[in-house]
Amino acid sequence: MKKGYLLIVFLLVTYITSQAQTLKPVSWSFSSESLGNNEYNILLTATIQENWWTYSQYIKEGGPIPTTITFDANKDFEISGTTGEAGAHVKEGLEPMFDMVLKKYADKVVFTQKIKVLNGKPEISGHVEFMCCDDKQCLAPETVPFKISIQ
Q: What is the reported pTM?
């Protein structure tokens, strides 16, 4: 009987510990919207848990890992301009953890890239690399692949 209780306690502690080590405060969704004339916006949306944030694409060297979006080469579309970013809960200022002025997003941020389709209905693929932090810690940078079918 005592061994059964010890096993249950051990399994419970193992489960709680494993959950604490797999923090995923940012989830991503990927979509496209037609602009007409074979042009589309590719939307990469980060939904961020309360008390966490992720960083802008535009971070100077020596700070956190900036959000970086990489599109796989594909002859069926071309990228137009640079990737934009917008979020309602943006903070820009001195970040004590890195001792530099940074731009970061809480709650939700949408990265938008305009493309021009040259042939057919291409699949847009690539990956986004990002880093997220709260007031006490930063998680290791993470890379998330994406595939978006143009319809």
A: 0.83
